[in-house]
Amino acid sequence: MDKNKLTKQLAVIVLVVALFAGLDIAIYQLFIKRVISHHSPGMQKMSVEVDNYVPFTNSDNVHSYQGVVTLDGDIPRIDGAAALLPVYAGFVESIYPEDSVIFNGEDYDPSSAMHYTNTRGAYKDIVDGNADIIICAQPSDEQLAYAEENGVELEMVPVGSDAFVFIVNSNNPVSDITIEQIRDIYSGNITNWSELGGNNVPIAAMRRNKNSGSETALEKLMGDTPIVPDYTTLFGSPIGFSFRYYVTGMLGEGGVKILTINGIAPTAETIADGTYPVAGNIYAIYRKGETNENVYKAVDFMLSPEGQKIVEESGYIPIC
Amino acid sequence: MKDKTFAIILIAITVIGIGVTAALMIHGYNLWKQISIVEMIANWG
Fold it and tell me: What is the mean pLDDT of chain B?
């Protein structure tokens, strides 16, 4: 046996094993480690699991005020965004007949008056006539165009508000940002945290799915400034965005922090008085010209003192 | 080591390596679909 040949063969084997090991370690460090959910109590408190918010199940997560008004006759089908499920589950438990809500243990039955298809599904359903009221943040241009194409005009009634917040890892020394800097980050003009007074680390500008509520909020914030995809996301220190409701439960965990914008933190007071610059409404949305009187009764309830208490107790800011 | 043996060992290592890498990526993708952006940033210290 040629000893030299054997050495070369062993070297090749070791090299191939080392290459795969290096690749797998890199995948773990750059990707898997960051997507492992620790399910801490704070996160669980604010995570929206559909079966924790089923009306008429005595759930502590659903806040309701029964007896103010009860709908009968043609019950409107209601749907909405994931983050707003606690709000409209409370509305439904307050004014809908109990037998109009049918949950099969995993999802709502097609014949149920309450559904949960999230922002994208809800906007499609209200236009297609599969829902009569939806509870969502503002629609994207694409969702408005879909309504227009189908000859549907949407009536949007604000029933509460929340803040659009930008978050970073709690180890990031940057704590404040301006609207202009946010636009520069997402348009690719600012690419390193050192440009904002932070460490010399690339910025990983994280995004959400197209037509999700928070991605739409980013698009509105950017205005005419084009959003440039960040292909270096895996290697930088992240900035992301969400609604205040989602992040609140995380603050005590120490993992993330909310950036102040122009020096203003998103508190209940600054959202309510409009000084926080990117607060946004949550809406009850129905088709213009709706003939079902119960739709208007439901919206009136949402704006009543009891309806607004549900908004507040669900973690959002009432508007009246 | 005979060339045939060497080739078999190399192929076996490659197949196992690709399998493990693919499994890791599928596992990561499944985790990514479930995690919130907030929690991901918290993990990203």
Answer: 89
Q: For domain A163-272, give the CATH number.
A: 3.40.190.10
Per DSSP (E only), the strands in A50-187 are 78-80, 133-136, 154-169, 176-177
Give the pair of three-digit tokens for residue A88. Answer: 């409209």
Interface contact flag, B44 A36, Cβ < 8 Å: no
DSSP code, position A271: H
For residue B42, the cross-strand partners are none
Instruction: State the Cα–Cα distance between residues B19 and A3, nearest whole angstrom.
Output: 32
- E strands, chain A, where? 78-80, 133-136, 154-169, 176-177, 203-205, 237-243, 256-258, 260-261, 279-287
CATH domain A46-161+280-313 topology: D-Maltodextrin-Binding Protein; domain 2 (3.40.190)
ipTM of the predicted structure? 0.91
Of the listed ranges A213-222, A292-301, B7-16, the least confidently predicted one is A213-222
* Closest to A219 measured CA to CA, from A141, A278, A144: A141
pLDDT (0 to 100) of residue A118: 85
Q: Identical fold at A46-161+280-313 and A163-272?
A: yes
pLDDT, mean of residues A32-43: 69
User: Which residues share a beta bridge with A114?
Assistant: A78
- For chain A, list residues whose CB is within 8 angstroms of any CB belonging to chain B: 1, 5-6, 9, 12-13, 16-17, 19-20, 23-24, 27-28, 31-38, 43, 47, 167-171, 204, 206, 208, 237-242, 246-247, 250, 253, 255-256
Q: Percentage of chain A with pLDDT > 70?
A: 94
| Both structure tokens of A237 | 């220190």
Enumerate the domain spans of chain A: 46-161+280-313, 163-272
B2 burial via Cβ count (<10 Å: 0-12, 13-18, 19+): exposed
Query: Cβ–Cβ of B38/A242 closer than 8 Å?
Result: yes
